[in-house]
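Entry 14. Ran structure prediction on the chain below.
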Amino acid sequence: MRGRPDGCLFHVRTRVGHGLRISRPWRGLHRRHGATPETGTADIGEHAPAGVLLRAGQLLQRPCDGCEGAAEERLRRLHPEPDATPRGPGRPQVARPDREPRHRLGRLRESPRRRRPRRPARRDHRLDPAAQPPMFITRVLPGSPAAKAGIRAGDIIVKANGVPAFIGDAVNQSILDAFASGTVRLTLKRPTTGRTRTVKLKEGPITRRPPAVTSKKLADGVTYVQLPLFYEGAADQVLAKLRGRPEVVVLDLRGNGGGSPREVMRLLGAFAHGKVTSYFCPLKGDCVPNRTDDSVPLLGSRLIVLTDRGCASACEGFSAAVKDNGLGTLIGTRTAGAISGPSKAYLLDDGSAVFLPGVRHLGPAREVIDTIGVPVDHYAPMTALDLATGRDPGVAKALALL
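Output, structure tokens:
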């Protein structure tokens, strides 16, 4: 969902099992999950294993020595996920013991005819009441049920299972329940023609492609690079696309859910040396500065960065470093406002684990980014009509500035 820009509207991209990607706005997501300015925010990911927030009393007071690797191995064993899965606002990464699945299977064997009803969407995941219409599809996964049904990016969601997306200008919170079911009936409006139709979708297998850096030439001396995540090795892949040392680099970070802070510092090292990229601040003690990786040769290129509400975590760290250090220009919309320091694994008494940050993240100017986001220099939002017609207002604005 897209809304008008203001300081309290944050958008989070969420993948749906039908092959759609919409944008859900939340207000103060991290605050509702118990984060405070002193402790930072929980490390949460949109594809994290299902689980509930655990009470603070269940946490060990200190991280156990050597348990981080064991906890991560437990997560991979119980809930296998691709290493390159994007991260962003969602649920905390909680590894739950395997006794609950066994219990569920046991009940199914004893009473094969008794089926548990599908759980509705969690009520604590609320859409931002300040969001403005329309709600529209931002991406359709290739080969998904949505793609086979002819749904396209830019299609406006009028209703889901008969539930309107908006009541007047107010977002309808109950529409989330429709996407929790295995079958959803969408009433869609195509912005290019104004035609309205109803599509019935059933959950089906979705093939997730690993993230990859892509690039293209926009004009003489202007190279466009799209970076979907700051995964391990991403910085070097971007630098490989820029071997020709173009005069201008348009770096597209829209939808980038974050990743490794090391990749952020390495990529920033190609545009400046000796700069502070961020601060990691513990609850007690002095903040520790992070700096650019000065082992990376300077490109000498002008930098333009495209951001949106899907730019979160490490993506926001990169954007703030560019803005505060005057390394380039930000175009698009304000970032998600969902960032914390690196997480540590805390082993719980029931054998599960929860990942929480040990430090708070501040920008190079010591500003708070979490729950606020990084503002852009030039506002260029992507609308439903832009997606439907293939127009990119961010790229168009970047070329107009040259």
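The chain has one domain: 28-114+207-402. Will compare against last week's run tomorrow.
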